[in-house]
Write a structure and sequence with these properties.
With about 260 residues, this protein is mostly helical. The chain has nine helices and three strands; from the N terminus they run H-E-H-H-E-E-H-H-H-H-H-H. A hairpin with a 3-residue loop joins strand 2 and strand 3. The two termini are about 30 Å apart.
Length: about 260
């Protein structure tokens, strides 16, 4: 791979981040600055700068004279990420209730109707990548409708952190896709009625389910994190209440939006 653009640091940063997201680089792996520079056919300086930027964002730990350590996601990290994401998306849906246009509402309706049809009315095998694209479109449309586009960058950062866990692959189960579509429909219905309270509750509930299923998935697939388990009563975002039915861990398939 050869870089010719002036912004070598940004290109190296994007390459490394994509490898973190698709798990080419696995948790606990030690990367060599020298090896990366040779592979990318560049000097070590942009690699070092890119690594330092990724360290600031919490993806890796740059260890001078040793290498670049790929950091895993702890259960406390997961809780923190979902707290931030939930707060941001509740803000987005609250603002959207005030500003959403007919066009944005129609996009949301069509997106959710397609999800409901595919995952509740047909027997086609779920394509988790397709559902994630559809899910991302749904959440991004709400953010655009909110009128505060800075939210999109912040939410995408949280999504990327969740994606690093590998839980998206569990989105291949029809039952969870169908449930998520129904949760989306509840949000759309509240937006149609400009019911701010219901829209915020629906978004909080939806992301609460995402958190619990992610929490359960990581524990089942990463036994070493069992000691870091969070009690169920700590799963709700402070100031936001999850429905009573979510008080027990959910063992259903996991998804990330």
């Amino acid at each position: 791979m050869e870089y010719k653009n002036q912004s070598l640091q940004m290109q190296v940063y994007r390459t490394m981040k994509q490898r973190l997201l698709d798990q080419t680089y696995v948790n606990g792996q030690m990367l060599s600055e020298r090896t990366l520079a040779a592979e990318l056919q560049i000097s070590r300086t942009p690699v070092r700068r890119a690594a330092l930027q990724l360290q600031k964002e919490g993806w890796i730990q740059y260890i001078p004279k040793r290498g670049i350590l790929v950091k895993g996601l702890s259960m406390q990290d997961l809780k923190n990420i979902f707290q931030i994401r939930t707060a941001l998306e509740i803000l987005a849906v609250r603002l959207a209730c005030e500003h959403i246009s007919a066009d944005h509402l129609e996009v949301l309706r069509q997106t959710v109707q397609q999800q409901l049809f595919k995952y509740k009315q047909t027997q086609a095998a779920p394509d988790y990548q397709e559902f994630i694209r559809s899910d991302t479109e749904f959440h991004n449309t709400i953010i655009v409708a909110s009128g505060n586009l800075m939210l999109r960058r912040l939410v995408e950062e949280m999504r990327d952190k969740i994606k690093r866990t590998g839980i998206n692959s569990l989105y291949s189960r029809r039952s969870r896709c169908a449930e998520a579509a129904e949760e989306h429909w509840r949000i759309v219905h509240a937006l149609e009625n400009k019911d701010t309270h219901e829209a915020c509750q629906a978004m909080d509930s939806h992301l609460g389910i995402c958190y619990i299923t992610a929490h359960d998935y990581i524990l089942r697939h990463t036994p070493a994190l069992a000691a870091d388990t969070l009690p169920t009563e700590s799963l709700s975002v402070e100031g936001m209440i999850l429905p009573p039915e979510l008080e027990e861990p959910v063992s259903e398939a996991v998804h990330e939006h």
